Amino acid sequence: MQTLRLRFAILLLVFFGSTIGCAAQATRPSAPPPPPAGVTVQRDIPYVLDGDPAEKLDLYLPDKPSDKPLPLIVWIHGGGWWSGSKTGCMAANFVPQGYAAASIEYRYSKKAVFPAQIQDCQAAIRWLRANSKTYNIDPDHIGVWGSSAGGHLVALLGTSGGKGAFPPIGGNENQSDRVQAVCDWYGPADFNTVMAQAAADPTKSGVNFNGSGDPYSHLIGVHLGADQAKGDAVSPVHYVSKDNPPFLIMHGTTDPTVPFAQSQELYDALQKAGVDATLQPFPNSGHGGPAFYRPAVQKLIQMFFDKHLKGMDVKVEVLPDEAVNVKPGNRAK
Q1: Nearest Cα residue to 189 out of 102, 124, 266
Q2: Domains and their CATH numbers in the chain
Q3: pTM to 2 decimal places
Q4: What is the pLDDT of residues 257-299, one digit of tens each?
Q5: DSSP string covering 306-317, please?
Q6: Alpha-carbon distance 107 to 78, whole Å?
Q7: Which residues contact 33 (CB under 8 A, 6 or more apart)?
């Protein structure tokens, strides 16, 4: 347990130093954190043949090979779709608990506007399935987990998967891009409502919407509100349907970058469609923060994946406020 807590502390430093800010550009860490004990990492595997330098992933596997294919958790980092790094893979911590893990890099919006980012993520999912026998991965049990911009991308993987909404790239078109479980950490869900929700939120927004530093409009190449169709195309809520996989959504109630109402809107849409969805609020937390790394929270995430990727008979229930609350003023900005 002490080793696991140290591992989370290292990732916390990497995470807040390089990937958390949806509105602030960040630099890549100079060196990746070491993998957990008993875990081997293979870095910079191309998932698009002769593709962009960004179209690579890291794969985390147990040192001791499993006697059966392992369910896979794919981590997608944040950083406003224009920065961040795949090196701080939260999912790697679950490899000792009987999982394989991967961390995806994708093209930034500074290089290619949407849908390049989701096309990359879907290409990576298809590549992982196509190579599942090589790496002893269970292709029928793939979960995704991401934060901020990565939360948006995993939510979009979940709601748009299998629908052919985006032209496939990178080959392996015979493989499915569907996933079986989604853990969304405070990702934007609806680009057509985010400005109004931010304006109505008592939390002061940290985003200058449609300004030069706005990651939302930079991602889609037009001002928010200027093109309804582009706003729909990028929004996970637009693709919600009854066949979506289970969702675990986690969001700070005083998030100045992505309003909490974004996750509430996505949760409500999933519930209306009959999708298994859980929304975990974090009272007084902002855009992420230390509360997300508490043992009870990490246990809840593991139980969510255990249930939906391993078929274990466990309950996934919202934690009480006292388990995740932080004192006002201690939230991540």
Answers
A1: 266
A2: 2-324 (3.40.50.1820)
A3: 0.91
A4: 999 999 999 999 999 999 999 999 999 999 999 999 999 999 9
A5: HHHHS-------
A6: 12
A7: 7, 10, 11, 14, 87, 88
